Amino acid sequence: MRGLAERFAAAGFAVELPLLPGHGTTLEDMGTTGWDDWAAAAELAYVELASRCTKVVVAGLSMGGTITCWLAERHPEIAGIVCINPAVEPALPDVRSAVAAAGSAVLPAIGSDIAAPDQTELAYDGMPAACLLSLFDGQEEVAPALGDIRCPVLVFTSRQDHVVPTTASELLVGRAAGPVEHVWLERSFHAATLDYDRDDINTASVAFARRVTAG
Q: How many CB atoms lie within 10 A of CB 14?
């Protein structure tokens, strides 16, 4: 997300780019955290930014998109949200059961789903099953309340995403009560902010933020 954050900053916006608990350190750290920790960190970052800005736009990729929607459901004053391949669709029962059966195991990594061969995502080499189950709990909380999102929404969806199905974006597009703009990405995989369409995402997101914060 750093590239998008830097584009917002270069456009004159104040920016918060929180490092969520368990992220950017070790896989062992990740295993001690869950949805409540990640959501609370995002809430704290939002409150801090809102305390010094009159209007706030929230953006997130994948699980960050889940958290972005969670914040918009809780804070109707948010000016707009940008969701990139958001993981907002609840897991199917058989998927949840399979992950639960893994117990304390570490599942295969999901990082670096990128089409561009010169790009690599800074990601762990595994995913604790408990963390994935916790994310599923977060999705179960977020999905039923998507209709409470009344601010403008900009959604980017990769046609080829090997981590989050495109039906997740379509669920958000179909349920959000505010005006929705849906952009399909033809060249990028899941980590689209690092992929071929990253410049288009950054440019469109800045333009969107300017529109929804104007006046």
A: 10
For the record, the structure tokens of 179 come out as 């005006």
Position 129: which residue type?
A
Indicate which residue of 113, 158, 161, 195 is catalytic: 161
Annotated catalytic residue, options 113, 158, 169, 190: 190
Q: At the topology level of CATH, where does 2-40+55-213 sit? A: Rossmann fold (3.40.50)
The whole-angstrom separation of Cα 6 and Cα 4 is 5
29 flagged as catalytic: no
Block means of pLDDT (10 residues each) for the chain, 215 residues, are 97 96 93 96 97 97 97 98 98 93 86 89 88 96 98 98 96 98 97 97 98 93
Q: What is the pTM of this model?
A: 0.95
161 is catalytic: yes
At residue 53, the pLDDT reads 96
Q: Residue 167 in contact with residue 159, Cβ under 8 Å?
A: no
Assess whether 162 carries a catalytic annotation: no
Domain ranges of the chain: 2-40+55-213
> Would you state the structure tokens that stand for residue 159, as one six-digit string?
């046609």
* CA distances from residue 175 to 2, 28, 66, 106 in whole angstroms, order as listed: 29, 36, 14, 33
